[in-house]
Amino acid sequence: MFQHVEQYAGDPILGLMDKFASDSRNDIKVNLGVGVYYTEDGKLPVLECVKAAEAQIANPPRPRGYLPMDGLKGYQQACQNLLLGKDSQAVVEGRVATIATLGGSGALKIGAEFIHQWFPAAKCYVSNPTWGNHISIFEGSGIEVGKYPYYDAATIGVKFDEMCEFFKTLNENDVVLLHPCCHNPTGVDLSDEQWDIVLDIIKDKKLIPFMDIAYQGFGENMESDAHAIRRAVELGLPVFISNSFSKNLSLYGERVGGLSVVAPSQDEACRVLGQLKSTVRRIYSSPPAHGGAVVDTVMNDEVLFEQWLGEVYEMRDRIRDMRQKLHDLLSAKLPERDFSYFIKQRGMFSFTGLTTEQVVRLREEFAVYMVENGRMCIAGLNNKNIEYVANAMAEVLK
Ligand code: LMR
Fold first, then answer.
1. Quick one: signal sequence residues (predicted)?
2. In terms of Cα–Cα distance, which of 182, 226, 215, 188 is closest to 84?
3. Which residue of 9, 299, 363, 367 has the lowest C-beta tally within 10 Å?
4. What are the tens digits of pLDDT across the range 91-150?
5. Other CB atoms within 10 A of residue 221 CB
């Protein structure tokens, strides 16, 4: 019956979590694979603002009815405030359609389905490289996916001129998938000036920017990490934005994300919202209630919101600290090599330039887990494991 069903090769990131869990070298193993923040004690944190919100939600216990297809109003508002700014003209004019989604992946999926239905000729272009699931999600929705030049291994920077020239060759209504901050997997971002240039080209060529922001707050801060989004809106572009609270609220398993579409008019935003809801209905009906309530509570309570910002910046700063320490340790061990990329890159990830063979050696010989494309999740490092990791890396780099 199922002989024709092909074996699943496994996911390069989530599959690593399974491998890591079943590795019996418990005393030494280090997980630098999946994009998850761990504390200095190697634990997945429950943020204090989340504990406080959950205490509020639990007392008295709330009934668990279905949420609306597009989620809670306070949740939608929270997404809009964070992404577009509190005084956004587009929000005031009612031109933003926002829905709560099943994580950032759910936002991308609903967005991709919408694009396939309403812009059937559009192709989607992703950065080379990008988060692998971008390609799977868009292709899975029947959209042809291409790649635009991005990462430059020679300079550990962006192939900026090539990227701009490439965008000039695209067709009207083609989608360009952009990472406004903390590029996944490279950690290499555009400067604000470069964003402004790219967005002018996007406007000129009438392309559709799809901004995927899963690490807001981990780059510089909540506001400047949203520069590209806000600039695109200022330029009057129609913008798709997928966002995630998985990382910045440490609510990975609650599946809390959002999709916002900024339209030229209120009437169009209303049509878009209706179609997004219809897409939600035919795929999963409505978003989860508990995670939605936590996000709504934290984001719409002034005290909890301030507490949240502090907790995000604490995570950001610990990651920066680990970047500096790993840089210093490796530079001392292999002085002939340049490890400055650890300090220059932003967010949870560092593209180390390690080859697949070296990554496999790290895993098999040292129980240090990284994605095979050489991506390291810096947020898995701490003062107890960093020397061990640096020694292991130095060993495979020799
Ligand atoms: C990652 O890139 O590791 C995270 O976004 C988790 C995932 O779903 O891949």
1. none
2. 226
3. 9
4. 999 999 999 999 999 999 999 999 999 999 999 999 999 999 999 999 999 999 999 999
5. 15
Q: Which residues are catalytic?
A: 131, 212, 247
Structure tokens, 115: 């694009």
Q: In 43-195, which ranges are E strands?
A: 96-102, 124-128, 145-149, 151-152, 157-158, 175-178
Lining ligand 1 with CB less than 6 A are: 13, 34-35, 131, 133, 184, 214
Q: Is residue 241 classed as helix, strand or coil in its secondary structure?
A: strand
Compute the distance between CA of residue 145 and CA of residue 167 in angstroms, rounded to an integer. Answer: 14
With 0.85 as the threshold, say if the pTM is over it.
yes
* Neighbour tally for 320: CB within 10 Å: 14
Q: State the closest ligand 1 atom to the C-alpha of 131, by its place in the atom list counted from 1.
A: 2
* Mutational pocket test of ligand 1: of 127, 133, 372, the residue with most ligand atoms within 8 Å of the beta carbon: 133
- R_g (Cα) of the chain, nearest Å: 21
